[in-house]
Design brief:
With 191 residues, the chain is mainly alpha-helical. Helix content is 79%, strand content 0%. The chain has 8 helices and no strands. The protein has helices at residues 19-43, 47-59, 63-88, 93-111, 117-131, 135-145, 148-158, 160-189. The longest helix is centred in the last third of the chain and has 30 residues, at 160-189. The termini are far apart.
Length: 191
């Protein structure tokens, strides 16, 4: 295994009087990190669905071809969640979570350069595989930092990350669209 993915080494215990305040601070930081990290996974998870009508209209792909490519994500994601969950348990979640996110982002960027159904399928397969690296370190982190009695509450709050990440896609798209039109109007109205 890669050395940077190995679990963190134990650290020296801090003085008892500093534990309560430090623990609350670190718990909050860890929670915000996994919330933002998982929201980012959802931000790049379903982009292909938004591009599908464009691919059909502009490049002449059939709905069957687009469906075939889209199925790769779900297939790889399901298998990856199981396998990468086992791998994640032996890794440092601090590095495992962003590694999967970075690799999924690269796969998404490469989708923009793909020009054939087989290549799109392979890239979506990779995207799904890397997407499966998101949940396991989040679940493990929640289990390590929150007691069983409070875990349900924090899990429910963390689960909102799905909605936040998915809602960012159309929000940022609309903001970019509005900005481009505003910039165009400002630039061309001066002439």
């Amino acid at each position: 295994m890669f050395d940077f993915l190995k679990p963190a080494a134990p650290i020296e215990r801090m003085p008892d009087d500093k534990i309560p305040s430090s623990y609350k601070k670190y718990r909050f930081q860890v929670f915000v990190s996994i919330f933002i990290g998982y929201a980012a996974y959802y931000f790049i998870r379903k982009n292909f669905n938004m591009a599908a009508p464009y691919l059909i209209e502009t490049y002449g792909y059939s709905k069957a071809q687009i469906g075939f490519v889209g199925s790769a994500l779900g297939l790889a994601y399901g298998i990856s969640k199981f396998i990468m969950g086992n791998v994640s348990d032996r890794c440092n979640p601090r590095y495992f979570l962003p590694l999967g996110l970075i690799l999924a982002a690269i796969a998404n960027i490469m989708l923009g350069f793909a020009s054939s159904v087989p290549l799109l399928f392979v890239l979506m397969l990779l995207n799904g595989w890397f997407q499966g690296m998101g949940w396991p370190p989040c679940g493990r982190t929640l289990a390590h930092w929150f007691s069983p009695k409070e875990r349900g509450t924090w899990m429910a709050i963390w689960n909102v990350a799905h909605n936040v990440g998915a809602a960012l896609v159309p929000t940022i798209t609309l903001a970019g669209y509005a900005f481009c039109h505003l910039a165009r109007d400002v630039l061309f109205s001066r002439r």
